[in-house]
Write a structure and sequence with these properties.
It is built from 6 helices and 7 strands; from the N terminus they run H-H-E-H-E-H-E-E-H-E-H-E-E. A 7-stranded mixed sheet has the order 3-2-1-4-5-7-6. The longest helix has 14 residues. The protein is globular. Bound molecules: S-adenosylmethionine.
Length: 196
């Protein structure tokens, strides 16, 4: 499905970074950052341009191909990994930052992934996440087709126990991020730190 969507010539989520990431990336200590479900590379390339050492994972080969081109065009290096997050194992205490932007995967993959994120962050490392909430289904401005694939602040509190939330909020915001996310959107945003 994602390969088909990304077969479009243009970057369907644009080449500019996600707004929440662009506003808050400085919370992530300089160093290694992992971008989950990075798609066509707008967020990984942005972080590499800010001087981070970036690795990005996505299950779409077509998305990764476009991401590599975006990195090349921007003269930055990003380590792109073609993998399904159901099987991708994050090693312990590796990352200053983990970025999850619109990573909508089934709960049976998401829950173990979130557990894994807690272990994989270095002490003082930051998780920065934005995702659609179930409220998004009424907007029809992009996002996953079912509530099961969405997240809420309560879900994140539950699944990311062990991290300290510097920010955890649900809100509606205007999302203008490519042709596939355009209009009023209902999202949950989190910035969470691993304290030990
Ligand atoms: C809505 S797009 C967001 C892309 C990117 N984060 C952005 O904000 O531009 C969702 C991405 O999740 C990826 N994805 C979905 N399920 C996945 C899985 N099980 N493992 C890895 N990537 C997955 C898709 O290939 C797609 O690139």
């Amino acid at each position: 499905m994602w390969d088909e969507r990304y077969a479009a010539e243009h970057y369907i989520y644009g080449t500019k970074p996600n707004k929440f990431l662009a506003q808050n990336f400085t919370e992530i200590p300089k160093g290694k950052v992992l971008c989950l479900a990075d798609g066509e590379g707008r967020n990984s390339v942005f972080l590499a341009r800010q001087g981070y050492n970036v690795t990005a994972v996505d299950a779409s080969a077509t998305g990764i191909e476009k991401a590599r081109k975006l990195a090349q065009d921007n003269k930055v290096n990003v380590d792109y990994i073609h993998a399904d997050l159901a099987h991708y194992k994050l090693a312990a205490e590796q990352w200053e930052g983990i970025v999850s932007i619109f990573c909508h995967i089934p709960a049976d993959i998401r829950i173990p992934l979130h557990q894994n994120i807690i272990t994989a962050l270095k002490p003082q490392g930051i998780l920065l996440l934005e995702a659609y909430t179930p409220e998004q289904l009424k907007h029809g401005t992009g996002g996953p087709p079912t509530a099961e694939l969405t997240m809420t602040a309560d879900i994140l509190k539950q699944e990311l126990k062990g991290l300290e939330f510097n920010l955890l909020q649900e809100l509606e915001r205007d999302i203008v991020e490519g042709s596939h996310h355009t209009g009023l959107g209902a999202v949950v945003q989190a910035i969470a730190r691993k304290n030990n």
